[in-house]
Specification:
116 residues, alpha+beta, three-stranded antiparallel sheet
Length: 116
């Protein structure tokens, strides 16, 4: 009986110690979430993009948030939809929406992102 009580005590201590590492602090409300260091880059493909999806723009999550509309990206040899999202402004940059621009030889260029 005493061995069983000791086992339970040790098992409870191990369980408590393992759960102590599972605490998650909430992200402070109203704080901006910064997007990665995406800057304008030129992607060239020979397949025109599909028509863009119609997106419902939600209420901004914080003051000064910038809506980045969804767009077709070129990933692994095919067009892939990137959904719209809010991002925080980047000091010293302005945001140009992503767009596909037809080239003179039938190619398509993806342009847009943060530019100085």
């Amino acid at each position: 009986m005493e061995l069983l009580m000791s086992f339970r005590l040790v098992l409870g201590a191990v369980a408590l110690a393992s759960l102590a590492g599972c605490v998650v602090a909430p992200y402070p409300a109203g704080q901006p979430v910064y997007a990665g260091p995406a800057v304008s880059a030129d992607v060239v493909v020979h397949t025109p993009p599909p028509a863009p999806y119609v997106e419902v723009v939600p209420v901004p999550p914080f003051a000064g948030a910038i809506w980045v509309a969804g767009y077709w990206s070129w990933t692994n040899g095919r067009h892939q939809w990137v959904p719209g999202r809010y991002v925080a402004p980047r000091p010293g940059y302005r945001y140009e929406p992503h767009r596909w621009v037809p080239g003179p030889r039938g190619e398509w260029h993806l342009r847009g992102g943060w530019v100085r």
